Structures are given as structure tokens and as C-alpha cells.
Automatic annotation (TrEMBL), chain A:
Keyword NAD recorded: no
Primary location class: mitochondrion
Keywords per UniProt: Electron transport, Fatty acid biosynthesis, Fatty acid metabolism, Lipid biosynthesis, Lipid metabolism, Mitochondrion, Phosphopantetheine, Phosphoprotein, Transit peptide, Transport
Domain spans labelled Carrier: 44-119
Pfam families named among the record's database cross-references: PP-binding
Protein name as annotated: Acyl carrier protein
InterPro entries xrefs: ACP, ACP-like_sf, PP-bd_ACP, Ppantetheine_attach_site
Source species: Crepidotus variabilis
Pathway annotation: Lipid metabolism; fatty acid biosynthesis
Entry similarity comment: Belongs to the acyl carrier protein (ACP) family.
Any GO CC annotation of this UniProt entry: mitochondrial [2Fe-2S] assembly complex
Cellular location(s): Mitochondrion
UniProtKB/TrEMBL annotation, chain B:
Originating species: Crepidotus variabilis
Pfam families reported for this sequence: Complex1_LYR (PF05347)
UniProt keyword terms in alphabetical order: Electron transport, Membrane, Mitochondrion, Mitochondrion inner membrane, Respiratory chain, Transport
PANTHER family named among the record's database cross-references: NADH DEHYDROGENASE [UBIQUINONE] 1 ALPHA SUBCOMPLEX SUBUNIT 6, NADH-UBIQUINONE OXIDOREDUCTASE B14 SUBUNIT
InterPro entries the record matches: Complex1_LYR_dom, Complex1_LYR_NDUFA6_LYRM6, NADH_Ub_cplx-1_asu_su-6
Membrane topology qualifier: Peripheral membrane protein
Name assigned to this protein: NdufA6 NADH-ubiquinone oxidoreductase 14.8 kDa subunit
GO CC, one annotated term: respiratory chain complex I
Length: 122, 134
């Protein structure tokens, strides 16, 4: 269903009355999200969503949470907590990060970078 | 329900270094953590995936102090076996709720003989291993 469908109809009607077709077209054409369009996430939205997710994790002190913070050094998480945090980010963006890459995510900035370069994330 | 017996089966092997066994433990934990919703659905549990994750975390925490390389390898293998048996649906309800998801057994405080005696029981042995909900 695209706008192209309406084009022959409007052109056919415009032969008779232009003034009558304009409101009909307006009534029928409902603007809606085009899911086929490749939108992608902006870096700001990724950052804010990741920070929101991490704030919800009870072992993280929101005051210490910055974009540059390391999970283990700055936020004081152990390795199992880091696994949980990365998994929470996975769930937020409904993706599955492979183990090798999940091991490498040690800071908040790395998580943001990974999501930014993953096209499946939404 | 048919299952492929070799699904999720792993070989028992020894880790070369502490770093490798650490990696294997983290991988095991990640697999457990990821499968929590599946476990809830498979056994139609009355628990949330969050609780399942908490219970599994307790099992890992219980062995946090282990430093012996061979002991860690055995624990990893046992964890893998548990994982395979759970996700293949080879467990019964009581084995899941009573053993796998039992967090009370780990939280139970160490009491002296007399404290237990005054309560009317001499040891924890009276509590059956798999009695469902304790």
C-alpha cells in the first residue's frame, strides 16, 4: 500500500474536477509509519536507553553511572554481574550478542558502540 | 516429548589455565541466564524468569570460593550436565522446584548442635532433598 496506488486515480479524476478530488485524497491518505524505511537508532537514543537500563539494575549506583564507566572498575560489578548487565542490554534492544563479543563489552561506551554498529538492534 | 540425547551434551575436559576456566564459567552462566524464560515455559513454573535467574545465581555464588583448578572443572561439567538435563526436559517438577530453584538450602544458617537440638531436630538430614516446596 503506497502512495503510488492513488496516483492514477487522482489523475483520472483531475480531468473532471480538481477541486473535488483534493479533499477526498486528503481524507483517504492517512500518514503512518513506513516500516520498510531504514530508520536506525540515533546515538542519543541508544545512549539514553542504555543508561536507563543500567539505572534499573539494582547493583549499579546511578550516581556513578557515566558513559565512560567501566562495569568492573567504576561501577564495582563482578564478572557475573557484568554478564547480567550485558544481557539486560540485549533484552532492551531485542538482539542476541554472541559470547565472544559479549565478553569484550566491559564499559558502558563499548555497549553503546556495539548497539550502534548492530543493524538488528531496535 | 522426544529429545535428541546429544543435544547440549559437552565433553568433560580440563582447562589449561585459570583464565580459560573463568571464561567457561561465564559462558555457562550466560547460557543459564539466557535460558531462564525457556525453563519457566518448559516446566510451566509458577516462578518468574527473574526468580529462576536469582536461584541460579545463588548456585554459582555458593561455589565462588573454589580455587582448585580440578574442582572447578568438575563443577563446570556438573553445571553443564544440569543444564542439559533441565533444558531437555529430563527433570521432574520436584527436581526443578526442590533442587534447582531451592535457594533456602543455601541461605540456611549454620546452627550449632544445641540450637538444632532445642528446635527439635538434630540435623538438616531430616529435610528430604526433593520434596518440592519446602
Amino acid at each position: 500500500m503506497s502512495l503510488a496506488r492513488f496516483i492514477p486515480r487522482t489523475s483520472a479524476l483531475s480531468r473532471f474536477t480538481v477541486s473535488r478530488t483534493a479533499p477526498t485524497l486528503q481524507r483517504r491518505w492517512v500518514p503512518r509509519a513506513m516500516y520498510s524505511a531504514g530508520g536506525g537508532l540515533t546515538r542519543e537514543s541508544i545512549t539514553s536507553r542504555i543508561l536507563e537500563t543500567l539505572k534499573g539494575y539494582e547493583k549499579i549506583d546511578p550516581a556513578k553511572l557515566t558513559q565512560e564507566a567501566s562495569f568492573t572498575k567504576d561501577l564495582g560489578l563482578d564478572s557475573l554481574d557484568a554478564v547480567e548487565v550485558v544481557m539486560a542490554v540485549e533484552e532492551e534492544f531485542s538482539i542476541e550478542i554472541p559470547d565472544a563479543e559479549a565478553d569484550e563489552i566491559q564499559t558502558v561506551a563499548q555497549a553503546i558502540d556495539y548497539i550502534a554498529k548492530t543493524p538488528e538492534a531496535h | 516429548m522426544t529429545t535428541i540425547p546429544s543435544r547440549l551434551a559437552t565433553l568433560s575436559r580440563t582447562s589449561v589455565s585459570a583464565a580459560e576456566s573463568r571464561k567457561r564459567v561465564i559462558k555457562l552462566y550466560r547460557d543459564w541466564y539466557r535460558s531462564a524464560p525457556e525453563i519457566c515455559a518448559l516446566f510451566a513454573l509458577n516462578y518468574s524468569p527473574g526468580y529462576v535467574r536469582y536461584a541460579i545465581r545463588q548456585k554459582f555464588e555458593a561455589n565462588r570460593h573454589v580455587t582448585n583448578q580440578k574442582a572447578i572443572d568438575v563443577l563446570i561439567l556438573k553445571g553443564r550436565q544440569e543444564y542439559q538435563e533441565t533444558l531437555n526436559g529430563w527433570k521432574m517438577m520436584d527436581q526443578v522446584t526442590g533442587i534447582l530453584l531451592d535457594t533456602k538450602a543455601l541461605e540456611r544458617p549454620n546452627k550449632t548442635f544445641l540450637q538444632k537440638f532445642y528446635e527439635g531436630r538434630d540435623g538438616d538430614g531430616v529435610i528430604p532433598a526433593a520434596s518440592g516446596i519446602l
